[in-house]
Each structure stands twice: as structure tokens, then as C-alpha cells.
Amino acid sequence: MPRIHIIGVGGYLPERVMTNKDLEAIVDTDDQWIFERTGIRQRHIISEGEHTSDLAAAAARQALDDAGLTIADIDALIVATTTPDMIFPSTASIVQSKLGASGFPAWDIQAVCSGFVYGLAHADAMMRGGMFRRVLLIGAESMSRIMDWTDRSTCVLFGDGAGAVVLEARDAGDEPQGGIIGSVLKADGSYRPLLMARHPHPGASPDMPDMAVDAAGVAAVEMQGNEVFRNAVNKLGEVVGDVLAHCHMQPSDVDLLIPHQANIRIINATAKKLKLGTENIAITVEKHANTSAASVPLALNTYYREGKIRKGQVLLLEAFGAGFVWGANLLRWSKD
Ligand code: UT7
Fold it and tell me: If exposure means fewest CB atoms within 10 Å of the residue's CB, which of 45, 223, 224, 303 is most exposed?
């Protein structure tokens, strides 16, 4: 059976930066509260006329360049997003077209903040099964479009962006230790009232009558922050243990934790559980905020481009999001 390797990495952040100071003019908040409670100092915000598919396509181009490939070399395209351009068609099919391609399969994954971790497991299984040789996997979000900009408890937390990887199936004999080692995915929909963005279409959620909408009538994120926080710490602590056990590895085998970037305090709790020092944790929450499905690949891209990921290192990726839906992947970096 082949092993699946990351052979190209890319990212894209919209030009406009919104700092905590900027937010002080919008809602009753301050830089100190936001930074102390979350670790966030700023976030990038998509511009008018730009869409999730544009962010995704930009990240994809950089990942393809990095792999030394073009879109003609790709066999399938997956976009993990919770902020698609439209209800349908899928953002993946729009991205495929924007990249100038057609023919090969393209589809979206909706696992909210865990979308990239789910996507990696998904692509790994399909590729090991021989269905595709090269897959472009993208996490892309325009979370600013589903914010209630009058709700200080949510609008300070999120940002926009995209991260992408090119995956390649290689004969296991060539690099028996490298590539994706294993994944564990979890979901429990009974927690859905704690974090959601309801469907803007009237009548779509008959069990949830008091739908939250922003001034433009668009569904907005609603969250019971401290309950989500508590669950994130517990469930991420469990799932990193589960993926290590599944792969017969120890916390001491992990060289770099690439966590979902929702809150520095959640990240530190998971790192503590694994007994990892600051130098072994990828942290981008300060500059990117929570970009949902884009957060893990954007952190990967940032650390990769800063030369902080070396061949042979073991990377642990994890994420937690609405649903709840959570999971983790272990991989050994095989790229120079
Ligand atoms: O990616 C999906 C997963 N999402 C997450 O992981 C987010 C998880 N939750 C969190 O990160 C944290 O719960 C928050 C950062 C959202 C909130 O931190 P907290 O320590 O749980 O604060 P809290 O919700 O208990 O609120 C504490 C106080 C409240 O005031 P009172 O009731 O104590 O007077 C809030 O009204 O902080 C107030 N507050 C704010 N103050 C200034 C809430 N938001 C703000 C704000 N600025 N932006």
C-alpha cells in the first residue's frame, strides 16, 4: 500500500488587517482583554468582491508552485470550508474552474474548524486505496462574512484566509517512514446548540426558531464560549492521546504540534498534556485569529516557510469545532 506525502504547501491571507485596536471602534472591547483571553492581536479580513474560492485558489497556486507542479498534475481537489461561496455549487468546483482545470473530481468537506484534519484523513484513505495519485487539499474561510459585528463575544475571535497542501501517493518501499502515519476523527452532534451559524433560509431550522441574523439578514455565529472552551480542552486532550495510541507512538515522539488556532489557552493546555515546550508548538493565532478550516494549513504554511519544519520530524495536527467535530493526524515530514 502506498504512503501519502505532503509535497507542496501554500497559504493566502487577505490584504486587509484588522487589529484589536480597530475592533475597539466597533464593539465594547479592548486589546488587553482580547489578547489575555485568546492570544489574538489581529486578523485578516476578506475584501468586498473577494470570495472564499479566491482565497483557496491563491493558496492552491502557491502549494502547486512549491510542489513544482501545475493543476494539470492533480487528480482530485477537496476544499474544507464552512463559508462556501454559495450553498451550491461546491467551492471546490469553483476553485477548480478558477485554476483553469476541469474533469477531475472536486468536492467540499464541511467539518467546520476540523475541516482540514478531516480532509487529510479522507484524502489519505482514498489515496492509499489507490483512487488518486495527487490530491490538492485546501482549507479556506471567510469567517468575517458570518460574524455578528455587534456581538463582542464572537466577532473578535475569527479571521479569514486559506491554506493548501499537495498530497502525493508514493510507493511505501521508497520512504517507509515518511508521510501520513494515521488519523483519528470524532463527532458528537448533541453539542450543536453551543456553537452554530443557523441556516439563513427561513424554516430551515424548525427546532431553532429564534435564528440569529446580522443586519443584512445573514446567519451569524452564535457561541457559548466558556462551554466550548471546556470541551475543546478535554476533547483535544483525549484525541491527541488517541492518535498517538492508534499509531503506536508516544508524546515524546512528537517534534511539532500544529494545533487549531482558536485560543492560545486551549493550545497551551494540549501542549501541556503532551509535555511539549513552546519551541515544539506552531502558534499563529496572534496574527491570524481563528480561521476555522484554514487555521491548521495556514499554521503549517507559516512554519514551513520560516524553515521551522525539517525532514524526518513528526508533526501532530489537531482541531476542534462546532458539532462538536474534532480530530488529529500524525505525519512524518518527508519534504526537504
Ligand atoms: O474554533 C471553534 C472553537 N472555538 C473556540 O475554541 C472558542 C472557545 N472559547 C473561548 O476561546 C473563550 O471562551 C472566549 C475567548 C470566547 C471567552 O473567554 P472566557 O474566559 O471564557 O470569557 P467569558 O465568556 O466567560 O466572559 C468573561 C467576561 C464576560 O463579562 P462578565 O459577564 O464576566 O461581566 C463577557 O461579557 O468577558 C466579557 N467579554 C468581553 N469583554 C471584552 C466577552 N467578550 C468580550 C470582549 N471584550 N470581546
Answer: 224
